[in-house]
Design brief:
This protein is an all-beta fold. 1% of the residues lie in helices and 48% in strands. The chain has a single domain, classed as Tachylectin-2, Chain A (5 Propeller). Strands 12, 13, 14, 15, 16, 17, 18, 19, 20 and 21 form a 10-stranded mixed beta sheet that branches. Strands 1-24-23-22 form a 4-stranded antiparallel beta sheet, with no helix packed on it. The longest helix is centred in the C-terminal third of the chain and has 4 residues.
Length: 335
């Protein structure tokens, strides 16, 4: 198993200036119905730093899927003109639903049929989630609307905030989630894909009366302290990439199924957190890293990840980068 190596910066000077994107992060990515890559970013600013003019979130960039292997090339953005506009209508610091909202952050998106769905966290400051909700796009990610589906921030004891989801071959969407405080483990949900926007259709995977079953109250499936998550089907495997905040690293798990025992599943660290003085992007050492979103088109021996970095002392770098790793050996040991 080799550490992930950097392909290139995806955002920042020389990469996304024409979209008014200087500093940004996250970049969870899915394939739109029309075949384009749709990447959704969080707090975005016009200058190459955190703060300054042009604060918006979420924003969308479109990528050419043929460029995955060498680093995503951006072909456009959501909004009129080339400027990447905020795709949800609200003002930072305004009051929504009786609560003050500083920002709305994306956690993951999914394509089902001809529509795309985006799960977001409505926040007052980082880590304080008032509620989460689902947005929908019927035009390949160009515009988004609220579906009216929302969950309170304390849903499932605060473990249904940071979410990732993927379609199974049984008509269900499976979703792992955790809190946004980076101090909690993971729980698992599923929902019929044709009822994604029906909260009553979601059911939890839980342990009760001596066995695991759907419909039980949710049981933590993996203890720890986690942040950003990304569940995808890769070469007929379920692959879960996660930011292990407690271990200061990004790990990848290979699963037979979402209900596999996550403690016994094959797992590898592909990126290690480090100090700014000891960074080495060619050897998988990244300061103040987070994220870790699987890029569509990845294979197990060529797994591409969108990784974020934020120097909180100087507010730059604040960017998304693309790394690749060979995790093919995980498949032989998956549980």
């Amino acid at each position: 198993m080799t550490a992930a190596t950097k392909i290139k910066d995806l955002t920042g000077p020389g990469r996304t200036d024409r979209f008014g994107v200087g500093g940004t992060d996250l970049g969870t990515t899915a394939v739109a119905p029309d075949g384009r890559l749709v990447s959704v970013f969080g707090d975005t600013f016009e200058e190459a730093r955190v703060g300054g003019p042009g604060w918006r979130s979420p924003v969308v960039l479109f990528g050419d899927p043929a460029t995955t292997a060498t680093g995503i090339e951006w072909t456009g953005s959501a909004g009129p003109g080339t400027y990447a506009h905020q795709v949800l209508d609200y003002h930072h610091g305004s009051v929504l639903g009786g609560r003050r909202v500083s920002t709305v952050l994306p956690t993951d998106l999914i394509t089902v049929g001809g529509e795309m769905y985006l799960h977001v966290m409505v926040c007052e400051g980082l880590g304080n989630v008032h509620w989460t909700e689902v947005l929908r796009s019927a035009d390949n990610g160009e515009s988004w609307e609220r579906t009216g589906v929302a969950w309170p921030g304390d849903h499932h004891d605060g473990l249904f905030q940071m979410l990732t989801w993927a379609r199974g071959d049984d008509g269900h969407v499976y979703a792992f989630s955790t809190g946004f405080q980076r101090d909690k483990g993971l729980v698992l949900q599923r929902v019929p894909e044709d009822r994604l926007t029906d909260p009553a259709a979601w059911e939890s995977w839980g342990f009760r009366d001596g066995h695991w079953a759907w419909g039980n109250p949710p049981t933590v499936a993996l203890t720890g302290a986690y942040g950003e998550l990304c569940l995808r089907r890769v070469a007929n495997r379920w692959v879960l990439a996660l930011f292990d905040a407690g271990g200061y690293r990004i790990d990848v798990l290979s699963l037979d199924a979402p209900t596999s025992d996550l403690y016994r599943s094959a797992r590898a660290t592909v990126l290690h957190g480090t100090s700014w003085e000891d960074e080495d992007h060619a050897r998988g050492r990244v300061a103040q890293l987070y994220g870790g979103y699987i890029v569509p088109g990845s294979t197990l021996d060529d797994l591409h990840l969108v990784v974020s970095q934020w120097n909180t002392a100087t507010n730059w770098p604040y960017r998304a980068m693309q790394f690749r790793a060979d995790v093919s050996r995980l498949a032989a040991h998956a549980a």
